[in-house]
Amino acid sequence: MVLTDEISQDFSSKEKRKNKTLSPSVRKIVTENKIDINSVDGSGKDGRILKGDLISLMGVNPKSSARKIQYGQEERIKMTRLRQTIAKRLKQAQENAALLTTFNEVDMTNIIEMRKENQEDFKSRYGIKLGFMSFFVKACVVALKNYPVVNAEIDNDEIVYKNYYNLSFAVGTDKGLVVPVLRNADELSFAEIEKNIKEISEKARNGKLIIEDLQGGTFTISNGGVYGSMLSTPIINLPQSAVLGMHNIVERPVVVDGEIMIRPIMYLALSYDHRIIDGKESVSFLKMLKENLEDPRRLFLDI
Asked: pTM score, two decimals?
């Protein structure tokens, strides 16, 4: 460990000595453009990097991509059956539903603190980590019970209200997006939700889902935040009438009790079928979701 520290310190000192040879204008270009000076051959005295050396980099032609070199200008690969099914269903959703999306934001401070305070005890007691999804599943169930039309679907000229809560959740795999179902989510504890989601997600990634795992969902949660998405307008999963889009958590300045504070904020998007869900229900649904997520104790106290 001492040897590693000595090597690190020696490397750091070399970098500092090298940086000292840079003129202010060169250092500014290096800093602003995050240039690795080790990859630049200096043309100045004793190999000193000059401004002209950096400008010369702008005239260097980039190499062709590895895929282009290996496969040529274009490559044609037949779509998998899964990808064809995904494409067909997404197009059907756009053609057969009156899609609309409404947005809100959630301050994740209290959930993050609750996870941090209880993570070790939760994991030792239940053998699994306490994630964000269990909070969102619980909050969605509460909101769906209060706004049942969001959990409904259209069947010809009838609205079918579902008095059970099978929450679909999107899982990205090497072969494409699949949407397995967490059944009777309203009857599951936080620990059971986390365990079931982990088990189903692993089945999805290992290609072991069966058709029953994908059927019977009443509402969908899509977490694009795991890939860094800031905002999106998710497409509903027919015959469902709504889908919730979660996004990445970013520290943003917000006003709290009249003061500007930095808080971890997540944007939420609810896409819904405007044929049966009005703006009032969609906005109220997201508002209730926000209230329960920002004060997660409500989910434990069932208020």
From this structure: 0.75
Q: Which pLDDT score, from 0 to 100, does residue 60 have?
A: 62
Low-confidence ranges of the chain (pLDDT < 70): 1-21, 58-62, 301-303
224 in the same domain as 168: yes
Q: Which helix (H) or strand (E) holds 222?
A: strand 219-223
- Domain membership of residue 160 (yes or no) is yes
- 213 assigned to active site: no
| Catalytic entry in 53, 186, 213, 274 | 274
What DSSP element (H or E) covers 245?
Answer: strand 242-256
Name the pairing type of β-strands 219-223 and 181-182: unpaired
Look up residue 133 and give its two tokens. 């999804």
The yes-or-no answer on residue 247 being catalytic is no
Report the C-alpha dihedral over residues 114, 138, 120, 253, rounded to 10 degrees.
Answer: -30
- Please tell me whether residues 104 and 250 are part of one structural domain: yes
- Between the alpha carbon of residue 111 and those of residues 1, 234, 245, 299, the distances in Å are 37, 24, 18, 11
**44 within some domain:** yes
CATH code for position 289: 3.30.559.10
Say if residue 150 is in the same domain as residue 184.
yes
pLDDT of res. 53? 78
